[in-house]
Specification:
With 85 residues, the chain is α+β, with helices and mostly antiparallel strands. It is built from three helices and three strands, in the order ααββαβ. The two termini are 39 Å apart.
């Protein structure tokens, strides 16, 4: 029980609090980054899988596109902080 109290309380507790604060800040940044997406890159491919066209569309255009294109397509969100997932 002494080892448990040593690592999860007492002298090492400040490191647990620091790690918790860092994780919460990262979660908030990732959430903000995902929420701030307002443009998408639309990649359109032909039947052979070759890229035909790359278009940047807005969120409103994306909502109108859902299910209407009978072709192979891929969407990539454009985020404010590109280094975050």
């Amino acid at each position: 029980m002494k080892k448990f109290n040593k690592y999860f309380g007492g002298e090492y507790l400040k490191y647990w609090y620091t790690a918790f604060v860092i994780i919460v800040i990262l979660m908030l940044l990732i959430s903000y980054n995902n929420r701030s997406v307002d443009k998408y890159e639309l990649y359109i491919f032909d039947n052979n899988g070759k890229l035909v066209e790359k278009i940047i569309i807005t969120k409103e255009e994306y909502k109108n596109l859902e299910g209407k294109l009978p072709i192979t397509k891929a969407l990539k969100p454009i985020k404010k902080f590109s280094f975050l997932p």
